[in-house]
């Protein structure tokens, strides 16, 4: 699915999802249910990183809401 595409299933809009692979041990996963503008605060962002053999999952400021800007994902402080 392209960034500008939204698919409809049973009358509902599929969320837009992005994965940014920064390295083999660090990823950012984003999901927006309000469109695909990466510069608007409509994203839920999760950072996934590996330390030794353990994978960690964190969210900006520890919050899991759809109120973050995907373009600013590197500027947030992530908490488990």
The end-to-end distance, rounded to whole angstroms, is 30 Å
Rg, rounded, reads 13 Å
Q: What form results from the Cα inertia axes?
A: globular
Largest sheet: 6 strands, antiparallel
The average pLDDT score comes to: 87
**Domain module tally:** 1
Number of helix segments? 0
Total beta strand runs: 8
Structural class by secondary-structure content: mainly beta
Helix content: under 10%
* Range of strand content: over 45%
Uncertain spans, ≥5 residues at pLDDT below 50?
1-9
Give the topology string: H per helix, E per strand.
Answer: EEEEEEEE
In short:
The protein has 80 residues and is mainly beta. 0% of the residues lie in helices and 51% in strands. The strands form 2 sheets. Strands 3, 4, 5, 6, 7 and 8 form a 6-stranded antiparallel β-sheet that branches. Strands 1-2 form a two-stranded antiparallel sheet.
Verbal overview:
The protein is 0% helix and 51% strand. With 80 residues, it is mostly beta strands. The protein has one domain (8-79). Strands 3, 4, 5, 6, 7 and 8 form a 6-stranded antiparallel beta sheet that branches. It has a two-stranded antiparallel ribbon with strand order 1-2. The chain starts with 7 loop residues before the first strand and ends with a strand.
Structural features:
80 residues, single chain, 8 strands, mainly beta
How are the secondary structure elements laid out?
Elements: E1 8-9, E2 12-13, E3 16-23, E4 26-32, E5 41-51, E6 54-60, E7 68-69, E8 78-79
Antiparallel strand pairs: 1-2, 3-4, 4-5, 5-6, 5-7, 6-8
